[in-house]
Amino acid sequence: MRGFQFSPWNLLLIIPLLVLITSLFNSDGPRLFGMPFFYWFQFVFVAVGVLCTWIVYVMTKDKPTSERPDRLSVDELDEGDVK
């Protein structure tokens, strides 16, 4: 067993897990532009979720999706069957 290893995909778990803990933001104050804390803090969760998704995209866009090389040739990828 290797222990805990950080993966950028772990960032995508932050928002759903925090939203489940409603006691963190289940209050009326402080108000922002007349909006109760419960509502504007959920908007903050949306922004943080978008930020986490962007960070995961940037950190993983250059990584290969599989470890083994692609063994298909150009002829095998051709849509038409030429004989």
From TrEMBL:
<dbReference type="InterPro" id="IPR021741">
    <property type="entry name" value="DUF3311"/>
</dbReference>
<feature type="transmembrane region" description="Helical">
    <location>
        <begin position="37"/>
        <end position="59"/>
    </location>
</feature>
<dbReference type="Pfam" id="PF11755">
    <property type="entry name" value="DUF3311"/>
</dbReference>
<protein>
    <recommendedName>
        <fullName>DUF3311 domain-containing protein</fullName>
    </recommendedName>
</protein>
<keyword id="KW-0812">Transmembrane</keyword>
<keyword id="KW-1133">Transmembrane helix</keyword>
<feature type="region of interest" description="Disordered">
    <location>
        <begin position="63"/>
        <end position="83"/>
    </location>
</feature>
<keyword id="KW-0472">Membrane</keyword>
